[in-house]
Amino acid sequence: MDYSAVNTIWVLLGAALVFFMQAGFAMVETGFTRAKNAGNIIMKNLMDFCIGTPIFWFIGFGIMFGSGSSFFGVIDFFTRGDYSSITPDGVPFYAFLIFQTVFCATSATIVSGAMAERTKFISYCLYSLLISLFVYPVSGHWIWGGGWLAEMGFHDFAGSTAVHMVGGCAALIGAKILGPRIGKYTKDGKPRAIPGHSLTLGALGVFILWFCWFGFNGCSTVSMEGDAIVTAGNVFVTTNLATACATCVTMLFTWMRYKKPDVSMTLNGSLAGLVAITAGCDVVSPAGAAIIGIVAGIAVVLVIEFVDKVLKIDDPVGAVGVHGACGLLGTLLTGCFAVDGGLFYGGGLHMLGIQLLGIAAVLLWVTITMTTIFLVLDKTIGLRVSEKEEILGLDATEHGLTSAYADFLPSSPEIANKIEENSATVPITDAVQVQIKADPKPTASDIKLSKIEILMKQEKFEALKLAMNQIGVTGMTVTQVLGCGVQKGAMEYYRGIPVEMQLLPKIQVEIVVAKVPVSQVIETARKVLYTGHIGDGKIFVYDVEDAIKVRTGEKGFDALQGMDD
Fold first, then answer.
1. DSSP 500
2. What are the φ and ψ backbone dihedral angles of 507, each rounded to 5 degrees?
3. Would 5-399 and 433-559 be classified into the same CATH topology?
4. Parallel, antiparallel or unpaired: strands 497-498 and 537-544
5. Which CATH code for domain 5-399?
6. In this structure, what are the phi and psi dihedrals at residue 491, rounded to the nearest 5 degrees?
7. pLDDT band, very low/low/confident/very high, at 484 (cuts 50, 70, 90)
8. How does pLDDT run across 138-165, given as a tens digit for each residue?
9. Given this model, what pLDDT does residue 220 score?
10. Domain spans, the chain
11. 3-state secondary structure of 473
């Protein structure tokens, strides 16, 4: 067989980009969930690829691409059969194998987002294995392996149904059987917002996925010769256009709906556009792609709200709305907007009917198989962690990981000991000799010490610091804190749900004074901090029994004075 270097490079480039989508999914899921489960989510995204790769090579590829029947391929252990009939022109078999492997891993990783923060790690590994073993390969055979849907003309170019709807449907079933996270719903069924710990990570994941999707869709031409050159260009344009339109529409829709443009939902809007255009990116025009993106941008918000508020299914990252609903929607709209045979281009209902049949068949298959898998796992080894494990976080209970963010942990004893060993060894009494002046200052028993604690807005700190220095305050302790007063913080929506109590970033300043009058500190602080709006802050005053300066041993009034006093 004559191999084509350009076709082979194109397919391998696509495989590399689709593989890197695992990093994107990991960042999205980690960012949209709580920090105490970050390590667990990273581990799951790593392992679903590493488990799925050998399983798909061992048996899944044969089931998907074997020429057994229209409904099932063949049981071909270690893919030793002849697949020349399905291998793209000029592309070696192993290049095609790795290209299909990364698509299989993508379908498996979608499920983890909806089941995050409460699933046993061992159960996750097992159902991920089973998805790659036969759930994804069987429906994939119908669509891409020459099966009965392919024979009827079902069109799913890069996997809106074959990859994303399969993963989204499995996610819905798994999240339903698993149940919501502790505290997600009130006793009367009202959803509570559980914000993710890092929108920055979530946004990074979306940008990674958007970039890699050019390989997911564009390289699905599996060729860069002849007509495929033109098709690839069209795919890149439609993919990007649908995604951008979906993002803009989601931003505007949430702006009208929640009175503010919702950040996390807008990020989901980008993913919704990517998923929806994947089925028909090769056969729709730029105008059709824009319309598909617009529809997906609105649909993703409504579906995520419906799943959360009506179905009472806890999906932390919106996987059901993004992948399940928009995968279905994009496949269906391909039957409307395909320039050759689509409903709006004079093709009648024929193509739309086939698209609808394919969607129904795949949904039925995934529902039956994944319901069985999840129920068996739940009744045997258990699907969900205990309440205690969930509250403590899966990083600690499942992996023995204190935190995925080690820089925020206390120093180890060894480091502390080394610091102590390198410290000066001069006795404290000899460090600085204390000289008593002829006219000694009053002692602590004669002068009252007071502590003033100020909670304030961050932007006012520099002005306060300058004012305190001008009235003679010699020192202060400053801490960044989170808090709110009786107003419960500014009203905020997270994914369409009001946050019950929003803790706002504040500055806490602690000052102990003796020489400077307390009333002067209070009045100066009030003048600096006052704006007339709710949230200006509060000032607390406490009596202090004594103060000791560690370096010199001075007490009371003397301990609070500077070098020249």
1. S
2. -115, 135
3. no
4. unpaired
5. 1.10.3430.10
6. -60, 130
7. confident
8. 999 999 999 999 999 999 999 999 999 9
9. 96
10. 5-399, 433-559
11. coil
CA distances from 557 to 438, 442, 542, 543, 552 (A): 17, 7, 16, 13, 13
The C-alpha atoms of residue 335 and residue 160 are separated, in whole angstroms, by 13
Burial of 80 per CB tally in 10 Å (0-12, 13-18, 19+):
exposed
Spatial distance between the Cα atoms of 77 and 56, rounded to a whole number of angstroms: 10
- Which among 117, 495, 177 is positioned nearest to 306, based on CA atoms? 495
Sheet with 449-456: strands ordered across: 477-483, 504-513, 449-456, 537-544
Those residues whose C-beta lies under 8 Å from the C-beta of residue 177, and which sit 6 or more positions away, are 371, 374, 375, 378, 383
Among 323-337, 384-398, 452-466, 502-516, top mean pLDDT goes to 323-337
Report the C-alpha gap between 9 and 224 in whole angstroms.
Answer: 9
| Residue 542 CA neighbour count, 13 Å, CB half | 10
3-class DSSP state for residue 371? helix
CATH of segment(s) 433-559: 3.30.70.120
> What are the tokens at 153?
């003309």
Tell me the pLDDT tens digit for each residue of 216-260.
999 999 999 999 999 999 999 999 999 999 999 999 999 999 999
Q: Say which DSSP state 79 is in.
A: G
pLDDT of residue 565 exceeding 70, the answer is no
Residue 552: CB atoms within 10 A of its CB come to 15
CA–CA distance, 75 with 52 (Å, rounded to integer): 17
| CA distance to 22, 46, 166, 414, per residue, from 99 (Å) | 14, 18, 18, 48
